[in-house]
Amino acid sequence: MYGLSMPLESINLLISKSERPYDATAVANGCVSSPFRSAERPTHNGIDIAYFLKSGGSRSLAGEIRGRSIVAPKAGKIIDRGYDSMRGYYVVIDHQDTEGIVTRYFHMNEPAVVSLGSVVAQGQKIGTVGTTGNSTGYHLHFEVQPKGKDYLDPRKCLGDGSNAQRCPYIEPVVLVSYNKTGDGVKWVQWNINDKGANPQLVVDGEFGPLTLASVRKFQSQRGLDPDGFVGPLTRAALACPFNEPAVYLMKGSEGDGVKWLQWYLNRKDFGLVVDGDFGNLTRAAVVAFQSRARIEVDGIVGPITRDYLKNF
Ligand SMILES: [Zn+2]
């Protein structure tokens, strides 16, 4: 259902690649200066993008994003553009996909460079980053909403290498367990099937004995406590499309083990491109995570860092 996912590898792709101040193919912790519906801003229906990550891990100055080109993450039609005191200069794209996804861009520096009713291609410039309207600094406010439905967390619509783009259900935030019903259970059943459950479960949203047996089996295969309760650890294991590596990873490492690492770092909001390449940005994210977790900060990922990534 997340129709933006295909071409987008990271939020940074909303900003024209040639105009990024650094060769940052990733956005890291901090690039999103205000997340979707945080406790502090429960009605913030989008994300604010205000920083870039420099290689080495430090943030660029927020002002450096000023005037950068905003590009369409996916083709679509301009269904609204204009100015008001809240949104500043804004533009709205209807991606005309089966999910009815509409994306909105606020606080632009000047009027949208695309006209009402025009069709834009993926990657086409639609405006520049500004601070017009109700804004306290240069940033892009970005929203994603399927028509007639509730807003989505834009970060979950941007490709992170996970199967979130294929799964038609939204990952639950609460514990899912025996006898529960609803879409959270459907998410579990869909993902259990996607991991090769045998027999495949009927995705009916009812957590019955078969679902319980499948969850327990999956948990023991992954070295998790086979208690049948689907909490954060089991959810992550279900959502992650990559297998945990058994070897040490460090700068220069490559492959699916690195993708596993990048995927788990993104789960902590590091916004890396999941490309299986352990470069400077991945190392910077590992260093930042190790320091946050108060474990040895060496940029090398062994069993301890892996455990903290899963559990912290
Ligand atoms: Zn905002």
Ligand species: zinc ion
Helix-strand string: EEEEEEEEEHHHHHHH
Strand order of the largest sheet: 1-2-9-6-5-4-7
General shape: globular
Q: How many structural domains does the protein architecture include?
A: 3
Structural class: alpha+beta
Task: Using the coordinates above, name the CATH class of the largest domain.
Answer: Mainly Beta
Mean pLDDT, rounded to whole units?
81
Question: What's the main sheet like?
Answer: 7 strands, antiparallel
Number of strands: 9
Question: Count of helices?
Answer: 7
Can you name the CATH architecture of the largest domain? Answer: Distorted Sandwich
Give a written overview of the molecule.
The relative contact order is 0.13. This protein has 7 helices and 9 strands. It folds into 3 domains: 11-159, Glucose Permease (Domain IIA) (Distorted Sandwich), CATH 2.70.70; 164-220, no CATH class; 256-311, Muramoyl-pentapeptide Carboxypeptidase, domain 1 (Orthogonal Bundle), CATH 1.10.101. With 312 residues, it is an alpha+beta fold. Bound molecules: zinc ion.
Overview in brief:
The protein has 312 residues and is an alpha+beta fold. Helices cover 23% and strands 15% of the residues. Mean pLDDT is 81; it is low at 1-13, 16-30, 53-58 and 159-165.
List the helices and strands and how they pair.
Elements: E1 32-34, E2 47-49, E3 69-71, E4 76-84, E5 88-94, E6 101-108, E7 119-120, E8 125-128, E9 140-146, H1 154-157, H2 183-194, H3 209-221, H4 232-239, H5 256-267, H6 280-293, H7 303-311
Antiparallel strand pairs: 1-2, 2-9, 3-8, 4-5, 4-7, 5-6, 6-9
The structure holds zinc ion.
